[in-house]
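Bench notes, afternoon.
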Amino acid sequence: MPRKVILGFGISIDGYIARRNGAMDYLVIDKEGEALMADFFAKIDTTIMGRKTAAATAEMRESGEMPEMPGISNYVFSRRWKPGKRDGFEVVSGSLTAFVRKLKRRKGKDIYLGGGGELCRSFLQEDLVDELFIGVGPVLLGDGIPGFPGKFPQRDFKLTECKSYSNGSVALRYERMRTKTSR
């Protein structure tokens, strides 16, 4: 089965992945959430993220909020950071499409695109997202960092899973619907 690029994040009902200051304190991870994430990451062997998400991830690892994930290759796309190894990540630059195609040709598990923002927009512009995995938390933030920043072409998806949890959260999984002209 070919590797998929899965864009995944937690989001508020009104579409924000974080507060303006980057805080994600509204996302409460309970035992159900931990099990869901363990299942998800068991099917992943590669992550791709932007510089800001990588910095936040490194901080969460240092503080013990996020465990180390052995066996997972972590890539950061950045125009500011110099390419090479850094804080458990490999910083890369250049053509996003060429890099993703190279990763997808390798044998392995799926590829997780973490975070939102500019990198998310670039993946959607280049039509590199095969699946969406979105956890919706039962909160309206009113302001923050949008999960899907605008300015990308319409992309059609089919709902493949919808699961509700005791804390009021919902996990949604969508598969990219492609026509011969959208490939």
